[in-house]
Amino acid sequence: MTVPILEANNLSWKIGAKQILDISEFKIYENNHIALIGPNGSGKSSLLKMLAFLERPTTGEVLLNNGNYHRSVIEKRRQMAVVFQEPLLLNMSVYNNIAYGLQIRGMKKQSKEKIQYWLERLNIQHLKNRHPRNLSGGEAQRVSIARAMALQPKILFLDEPFSALDAPTKAQLLEELSQIIKETNITSVFITHDFSEIPFMADKVVVLVGGKIVQQGTMEEIFYKPATDDVALLVGADIQLKGRIIEEGEISLLQLENGQLMSFANYHNYKISQKQNIKVFIRSEDVMLGEGSHNNFEGTVEKISPYGLQYKLTLSCGIDICLILDKHYFLILKPEKGDKVKVNIPPDRIHVLDAG
Ligand SMILES: Nc1ncnc2c1ncn2[C@@H]1O[C@H](COP(=O)(O)OP(=O)(O)OP(=O)(O)O)[C@@H](O)[C@H]1O
Ligand SMILES: [Mg+2]
Fold this sequence. Notes:
The structure is a single chain. By secondary structure, the protein is of the alpha+beta class. The protein has two domains: 6-224, Rossmann fold; 236-354, CATH 2.40.50.100. Helices cover 25% and strands 34% of the residues. It contains ten helices and 19 strands. The protein has helices spanning 44-51, 73-77, 94-104, 111-121, 137-150, 167-183, 198-201, 219-224, 229-234, 327-333; strands spanning 6-15, 18-28, 33-37, 59-64, 80-83, 155-159, 187-191, 204-209, 212-217, 239-247, 251-256, 261-265, 277-282, 288-289, 296-307, 310-317, 319-325, 340-344, 351-354. The strands form four sheets. The chain has a six-stranded mixed sheet, with helices on both faces. Helix 3 packs parallel to helix 5 (137-150). The two termini are 35 Å apart. The site of adenosine-5'-triphosphate has 10 residues, from helix 1.
C-alpha cells in the first residue's frame, strides 16, 4: 500500500480554551493536488501551518513520509514551501529574495541556473533588480512563487495566493501556476475561497468547518453531494428546505414540510429510503425562469437585490425561492415587488441529504 507523503493523526490545536483544530485523520499522497476550502475562521490556515511544520499541534502528530528520512523540523520544512496571500518578501532585490531562500536551505549549488529558470518561468526576468516594495501585487506574488519553486519543494502550500489580485492578473497567473504544478512532480495544498480556481489547481477537495474535516472528494461530489448543511451553504446551495421522499424512481418525488411536491433526479444513488426525512438543497443559479418539464412554481416577488452584475429575486411560492436574473432578462421582465413570476427547477438540480 502506498504510504502518504504527509499525514495528520488525531491532530488538535487549542489556544486557551478554544479548540481551533480537531482532525482525526488526514492523508496526502504524492502528487495529490488538494484544495482546502471552508468558511472564514474554519481553521484552513491553521491546518496548513501544522502540515508545513510552522506550528506545533497541541496533541497528535504530523508525519512526513511516515516519519522516515527527515528527523528534525528543519529537515522536514526543507521539503516544503509556502506561498501566502501577502507575499512575504525581504527588503532586498527580487533576485536576492529568491537566492536567499536557496542560501538558507544550503542549496547554493547551481542556484544561478535555478534562479534564472524560475525568473523566466514566471516572466519576472525584467524585475530581477527591483525592490519588492515597488512591485505590484501580481508581480510580488510571481516573485514569491518563483522563490518557493526554486527551492524544489516536495510539497507546495498555497494560502489564498490569488485573492489580492485583479481578475485578469489572477486568470493569467492561475493558468501558469496550474501548468507548473502539472509539469513538476509536486504535491500541493491550496487554500481558496474562489471555487472557480479549484479545477485549475486541484483534483481533490477537502472541506473544513469548525476545525474539523467534514467532507473530502472531487469538486463534483462536494458541490452536488454536500455532506452537511454547512457544506451545502458554503458551495452556494442557498435554498435549503426540509421534506420527505414519497415516491422513488428515476425521477423521485418528495414532499416539502408545507405539503408542496417536488420531483428530483436521484442520480447520486443516495441510499435514502421512502418516507425518510430529508434536507433539500437548491442553488439559486439553478432556478430557471419560465415553465419547464418539472417543478413549476409561480411566485410573488418579495425582494429584488443586486447580485454582481445580475439581480437576485426572492419569490414567495409557499416556500421562498431565489432566482438569479441577468441584466438582459431583468430589463425585459422589469420585475417589481408584488409581481407574479413563473420559475421551474430541473429535477437534477435538486439535491437531497438524509436529515438524520
Ligand atoms: N495564533 C492564534 N491565536 C489565537 N487564535 C488563533 C490563532 N490563529 C488562529 N486563530 C483562530 O483560529 C480560528 C481559525 O483561524 P484560521 O486563520 O486558521 O482560519 P481560516 O479558515 O484560515 O480563515 P480565513 O478563511 O478567514 O483565512 C479563528 O477563529 C482564529 O481567530
Ligand atoms: Mg486563512
